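Record type: monomer structure entry
Structure origin: computed from sequence
Chain ID: A
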Amino acid sequence: MISLKHQRNSRISRIIHHPYFEPVASISAVAILIAALFLYTLNWPPMVVVESDSMQHGYNDTLGIVNTGDIVLVKKVSVPSSIATYVASEATGYTTYGEPGDVILYYPDGQMGTTPVIHRAILWVDYNSSTGSFDAPSLLDLSCPGQYQIDTQAGTRTCLNNPWTPVTGTLELHDVGWTDITISIDFSSLAMEPGGPTSGYITMGDNNHGMYDQKMYGDRCEISCIVQPGWVLGVARGMVPWFGALKLWLDGNTNDVPAQSWDYLAVCIGLIIILPFVVPWGVRRLMRGARDRDRGRKPPPDDERSSPKQRQAP
């Protein structure tokens, strides 16, 4: 009588040896992965390719840092309550991608449908329409003048005394980023942004050497005016390194891709090509071994189980 275990192993073996097993398994795995990414990020598409080196820490590929050619997961979150800025995170020790604060993706100047910018949220500012100035209460968590100071329009240097003290003049943030630079944010120019002043984020790329996105040049902002909550696509949460370089290669836009990324990518592609052949082969080997062990445990025939004395009887 064939055991239930043997029947089950036989069914599994037939499925694995079916000619459609490998393509169906591959397609199913991809579909499950895409669905899981969407459920995690609540964004579609759930990933974007990093096209510039504005977030790199130097010219080399550094694992765990946002490099050109990486694919970054974009998670939808509540804005601004679920986004930690660089300034607020300096006091708590919270870091992402090698530096304090969250990395956000936003549409520059709210132009939906354009390529989003992936930069770090440096500071949240509240526009006070009654005073015509900005408040930045998170600065109170930093030491002054050690981590920041304010150069007023009157030419004096000061610190915030309470959350409602307006910030006027130029805010200097000291020892920012992986190069420990000083960022000088001109608050007087923020009030003259096109479209009028508003509450939102001051943002900057880790590799932009202190050039924040909202710096004014004449009548325009460098990359984007103050990033309003409705412009934020999401927060960077995790990544798939290197594979986005393939898209940049097809687009002819690989100038900023680190040289090491191509080496790492080649190794990964080699593994992807080999694994679909190695894994089914390994599964079949395991199944064959299980069948051989089952056969080895079968009870011996009745004559072999008889005692030596019985076998010697005429």
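Annotation 1: Residues 259-296 form the longest helix (38 residues).
Annotation 2: The longest strand covers residues 117-128.
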